[in-house]
Predict the structure.
Amino acid sequence: MTFQVPCPNCGPRPVEEFTTTGEVRERPVESPSRRDLSHYIYFRRNARGVQTEWWYHRFGCELWFLADRDTHDNRVLETRLPTSSRGEW
Amino acid sequence: MVSRLRAREDERIDRGRPVTFTFDGTAVRGFEGDTFGSAMYAEGRRVFSRSFKYHRPRGLVCCAGQCANCMATVDGRPNVRLCVEPIREGADVNGQNVLGSVDRDFLSAVDRFAGPFTPPGFYYKTFIRPRRLWPLYEKLLRNAAGLGKLNPEATREGRFEKEHRSVDVLVVGGGSEGLQAAIEAAQAGSSVALVDDGPEPGGALLLTESGDEPARALANKAREVGVELLCPARAVGVYEGNLVPIEYDNVLIRMRATEIVVAAGVVEQPLVFPGNDLVGVMLPGAASRLVRFWSIKPGERAVVITADDSGARAVETLKAAGVRVAATVDLRATMPETIVASGKKGRVTGVSIDGDSVRCDLVVASGSPQPAHALLSHAGARVDYDAGRGVFVPVEVPDGIRAVGGAAGDVGQPGLPRPSFGGSGSKAKEFVCICEDQTTKDLRYAHAEGYDSIELSKRYTTVTMGPCQGRLCHLNSVRLYAETSGTDESLIGTTTARPPWSPVSLEVLAGRPHEPARRTSMHDRHKKLGATMMWTGEWRRPYAYGDPAAEVRGVHEAVGIIDVSTLGKILVSGRDAATFLERIYPNRFGDMASGRIRYGVLTSDAGRITDDGTIARLADDTFYVTTTSTGAGAVVEWFEWWNAIWGYELDVVNVTGSLAAINVAGPDARALMERLVDIPVDADSFRYLDARQGHVAGVPSLLLRIGFVGELGYEIHFPSVQGEFLLDALVTEGADFGAVPFGLESQRVLRLEKAHILVGQDTDSESNLLEASMPWILKLDKGDFVGRWSAEQVKARGLETRLVGFRLKTDDLPVEGGQIVGDGQPVGRITSVRRSEAADAIIGLAWVPADKAVEGASFEARVDGELIPAEVTLEPFYDPDGERLRS
Amino acid sequence: MSTLAFLSTDATADSRWTPIARSPMQRQQRERGARFETRHGWELAVAFPNESEMLESVGIAELPQFGKLDVRGAGARPSATRCTWYQMTPQRALCITDATITRSVRAELQESARQVVDVSSGLGSVALIGPRAGEFLRRITELESFPASGVVCEVHGHVLTINGGFLLLFPQEYGHYLYEVLLDAAVPFDGGPIGVDGVPRGTIW
């Protein structure tokens, strides 16, 4: 793995500077059933194609951001900072 | 017979600088500018190696570092290609894979007799029974076939560096197409680098009788317009993100290019005919190189058979070198039915073309010029068979890379040679893969056995898996398969091309031999005090300073000093700090007063324990969080992620390295601290779980009264740059109390005596708080928090397993991770175990079935193959009420 | 003491103790023949043999005594001249200060920033000075435009530009390892260590 990830703050950087928690997914809003909780914890869409993921610039600016990555060829199409109630990040 | 010609223009050798080396003990004389191979050839040597399986004599075929025929061991380094390795004074060169010598190899008996025993897949046919003899067979086979021998004692020699570069355009291949592409790009304003594996660029331009001048002129033009020429250098492969590692002397250049231009040209392909591996059969490029680079006459009498213009060029060069060209065949004009080479003692003596014999000692032959598309394939290009040209060409090339010249398939209109020129008559071996000694018969045999997919047959016959990695055999094997199976070459396809394109040593890939290590600011003091150091993740930590049992005693009876600087330390501050911590930890923190500390355990969203530490409230809006030594980065990452989602008014600052930490623990800890601090440390002023600020030996500090090791203790957090100073002060003043420095081993015993868990040691990725016997951490009567739902569900379903303490009645220490057995089944495991003097027993922690989690219950643990009874205890083994801790 | 005072070395108490600050690179500096002096409570390697030769290629100067402040939600930048401001992200900056003004700059920033944490002790700092500093830098990092935070010598670091070279900031617990790597990487450049006093005037400020 040697592709580059365009950090929204720093620009394109080698993938080794980052960590990722993978696919963005919906967190249950209230106490889920056992089945729904298992699904939330263990299941992913695992798309062959573009998926939105959480990435962290761990060995750089230390910001979390979202990335649309094509899992087939590791092209990162777009990255953006998450919107938060705090406004500017 | 000496084959060196008189001085020629553009020769690479410097006749004024002779160089001598030895081959198999005998001196060989050459010149500066020779390679080992050329010097040996000039002196008359023709046999350079013995083939992999049959031990047939082999000579130079490509002279370009492509095949395995000239591989030898140089100064202990195996598998060096002599045809391209620059000559070195005093080098000790030896043949490999022989019993005897290259000239007289006793293993050549294999060629004469062992054929029937060594068909494709012979490991599973002739050497499969009886099974118990396999170790013997294996030993015989390993010694009878192979390449060079590795020296297991070999050490790194010399310096190897890595360098990071980036350019707009990287051109791989310095022939005329590559140089022109580089010049155009530079003239258009791009930053350009060009890589070529020769000492000077030029590629095929250097192999014609027009001399080196055209190549030199182009190279100079390139330099003038600002192209950076890297030669001799080799591109290792193309990786994601247009990264091309380039081996340039002892530097591995990690080159990123916006655009890569592959101008790697073509690889000449051998013809397949009986006797095609005889010494003296070579590719046109080899003959040209011998003449032009090193002024060597390749032979006396030659036959030239080619499918394109390379034949005519070779004829011109051979004639200029005084070689008699006895016959030429242009496969574009005539296509013989059979070509059979014959020889004596492995050296070619003649060629019979459709029955007409011609005497010769040199056969210059090639078929299709196969585009060198490997780099494009690495980048994801699709390759397809061009039936009109008889070669594979790149067809769908991704963005960011392109091919020019031969590599792109620009090969004119060559003739299409027969996949095999053996006809039905000849019994001699026709080689498809000279590296692995695979013949047409072997490939047809494999196909008949059902290995008709190219990927399967490759693995079964090992064709293309030898040192040439398919360069000289892949095309021919596919064409033979097509003919044998009656399928189109385009349906058969190619095997996957992977980096490296050419061999690269591990030394070059490894670079400098430094391993990141984190050290505390007291590291040198520990070593001075006699500590044995150990690794904890990336940290270096003291294991012990002498006898760990004495250190344990010291802490229980007097006072001990331990460096805990490796703890993660995080400041969490802001208006929403308390709210945030309550939402991310199972604990309650909102009701914590400033100046108080709580032990917290982090869980994942699945309710699994991930880390633990202490949380001290420094102010309403400021918390000081500690984590495990290897967990700091992960916890910061975790905090930042959840806040990226929640968006609280919060700042997280990692101060792990900014602060050192020393824990002073033991009954005399207070007395020692009184000597050094400027704040009151009496029991009422500074209670257990209080956090106070002050100065210790003048150093500003945060003091935490916590008790991982179970005795009265103060953990001092202070600026790390003053680490040595403060440790010295503690050790000096501590001498009056018999203070002992203590390390990780004794700390392990002490915390185990208190049944304090170590996350990752006593817990794993499935452990939850309830089953780990820490129900008080879990505050289900607060709002949502990470891991809440899982905790609720575990509670609802009931506990299945429990982490408990145990005592063992034995003298033998069980292994950590050792099994707990119930009804003949493994039902749990021991996570920590040590001998405890204070408890006068072997004590430990273990996961047992929940119904065993009862004081006094007994279970069996496997110790050295035997089942030993153990007794459960739910209380700490030492000072169970914590009186010493809270004193 | 203010809540975060325990992070600052300049909060040392005036008592019978005289705390000394040392760098993790000391052992190697002593092995290389450095001369040491104590200034502002710091034991510093002030000079090495053959410094001027090193500066002809690339000199490696450890400058541990600078103040380093982690600033969140900044307002105004400091007025002092002997300090460098590195805006890492819109809400986070690193302020490097001359040792004598760390305390005052910290106080000034605390007026307008959301939070200022003194991380002077947590970041090591090494200057790469000389005509070949840029070439040398390519041997230890893939970073190309500065200032930048990324991977240097395989660890997380920050690279700022200074006159005639670069300033590297990195977690101090890697200090011994980093110094070893830098000095080794300097060998093919005929570069090497220089002391605090060997840094040409005007390089940093």
Remarks:
- The mean pLDDT of chain C is 95.
- The CA atoms of residues 34 and 126 of chain C lie 16 Å apart.
